[in-house]
Amino acid sequence: QVQLVESGGGLVQPGGSLRLSCAASGSRFSIATMGWYRQAPGKERELVAIIGSGGSTNYADSVKGRFTISRDNAKNTVYLQMNSLKPDDTAVYYCSVLTVIHNRSWGQGTQVTVSS
Questions:
Q1: What are phi and psi of 3, to 5 degrees?
Q2: What are phi and psi of 96, to 5 degrees?
Q3: Which of 11, 20, 52, 65 is deepest in the core (most CB within 10 A)?
Q4: C-alpha 93 chain-centroid distance
Q5: 103/88 Cα distance (integer angstroms)
Q6: N-term to C-term CA, the chain
């Protein structure tokens, strides 16, 4: 099982920015895909953005042009730069990784609140 430690959540005003980080450790196998998901109150968990080991990315339509996912393979760390935040972005954000043998791990979640 991969251990994931997330950081960077908090309270921000609409239009503001936050940067989430997630460091992975303890994996016996290479990490293929790293990503961010979010879950708002009363809603299902949804994909925000994912990034492959080669740098290919995929974003939810709702965050395209505002969020940027990146990763540092040497540090096994994934980042989510969130700009132009909206109240609808308020959610618990979860980091997730998928190893090359298709084992998935989840972080504990970090709260992001966008409010004036």
A1: -90, 135
A2: -145, 145
A3: 20
A4: 6
A5: 31
A6: 39
Contact 80, 20 (CB under 8 A): yes
**Residues whose CB falls within 8 Å of the CB of residue 72, separated by 6 or more in sequence, listed in order:** 78, 79
Tokens, residue 42? 């009363």
**Sign of the alpha-carbon dihedral angle for 112, 113, 114, 116:** negative
Summarised one tens digit per residue, pLDDT across range 41-80 is 999 999 999 999 999 999 999 999 999 999 999 999 999 9
Calpha distance 23→31 (Å, rounded): 12
The sign one gets for the Cα dihedral 59, 62, 64, 67 is negative
Token digits of residue 78? 């994934």
Contact status, residue 101 vs residue 45, Cβ threshold 8 Å: no
| Residue 28 DSSP label | S
Q: What is the CA radius of gyration of the chain?
A: 14
